[in-house]
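Hi R.,

Here's the chain you asked about this morning:
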Amino acid sequence: MSPEAEKARREFLEEALRQDPNNTFARYGLALELAKSEPAAAWIHFEFLLLHHPEYSATYFQAGMFLMNQGRVEEARRVLSTGVEVTGHQGKQHAQAELQAALDDLDERN
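And here is the predicted structure, written out as tokens:
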């Protein structure tokens, strides 16, 4: 993707959040965008979602992977474990299996 398209996407997500700070989709998308170049800013958005929208199950996998990539292994383990529980309560078996696989992989590495 071109730098111009990435900038436009980021600006769109930032504007969506200015209009509605509880827009989970925009916040999640912005966290993913920022994870590439601004990890501290990305974590602010992941953490907001985990704290204020714990039912937004997509966050757990991406936040867990983000934390693993940052070397924050214990935090990643906690996020992924919570995600396994949340998706289990929601009946999202596929998401739960992905989270469990990531957790198992993390446990095997560390």
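One quick note: DSSP finds six helices and no strands in the chain.

Cheers,
M.
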